[in-house]
Amino acid sequence: MEPVRSLTVLYDPACGLCATAKAWILGQPSLVGLEFVDATSHATRVKYQQLPPGELAVIADTGEVWLGNRAWIVCLWALRDYRGLAFRLTTPGLLRLARQAFSAVSRNRLALSRLLELPSERDLERSLMKEGVPQCQTSRT
After folding, report:
1. How would you class 43 by CB atoms within 10 Å of its CB: exposed for 0-12, middle for 13-18, buried for 19 or more?
2. Sign of the C-alpha dihedral computed for residues 92, 98, 101 and 107 taken in this order
3. Cβ atoms of 23 and 124 closer than 8 Å
4. Is 39 exposed, middle or buried (0-12, 13-18, 19+ CB in 10 A)?
5. Sequence-distant (≥ 6) Cβ neighbours of residue 74 within 8 angstroms
6. Sign of the CA dihedral 115, 99, 1, 50?
7. Nearest Cα to Cα of residue 60 among 69, 47, 71
8. CB 13 within 8 A of CB 40
9. N or C, which terminus of the chain has less Cβ within 10 Å?
10. To 5 degrees, how large is the angle CA 45–CA 52–CA 38?
């Protein structure tokens, strides 16, 4: 079996919690390549139509697929400083707890985003569009 060299993470850019998690993950040193893809786009839904909609999914360049809490654990596995934690979370007792915690957060992710005031990528785009693009002043020499 080939080693995993890159992961594609399907996420919801309309969710503030998802956008925050994406930014956090991309800010960490990683051991494999990471690409985040808008799970709600038409192209993504067509390409990955076999995957359940609305579920966090991670796809490896080897073709392996992880969903839900296992997808989150694979994201941690991809990060240099969190690989050990990812392995610990796969033990039977901790995997059960991770599944329960992930399920609770996932079910309430939009409400948590509002409560914690975590803007989604779409919220940020709308704010920037409303503000407009500032014009740069040219200097005359």
Report:
1. exposed
2. negative
3. no
4. buried
5. 7, 58, 60, 66, 86
6. negative
7. 71
8. yes
9. C
10. 40
Return per-residue pLDDT of the chain as tens, 141 residues: 789 999 999 999 988 988 999 999 999 999 999 999 999 999 999 999 999 888 889 999 999 999 988 999 999 999 999 999 999 999 988 888 878 887 777 777 777 778 777 777 787 777 777 776 666 777 665
Give SS3 for 65.
strand
Please, which residues have CB within 8 angstroms of residue 81's CB and are 6 or more apart in sequence? 28, 29
Q: What is the CA radius of gyration of the chain?
A: 18
State the distance between the two ends of the chain, measured CA to CA, in whole angstroms. 63
Structure tokens at 127: 């704010």
Backbone φ, ψ for residue 94 (5° rounding): -75, -30
Tokens (6 digits) for 104: 């609770």
pTM for this prediction: 0.78
Q: How far apart (Å, rounded) are the C-alpha atoms in residues 141 and 131?
A: 30
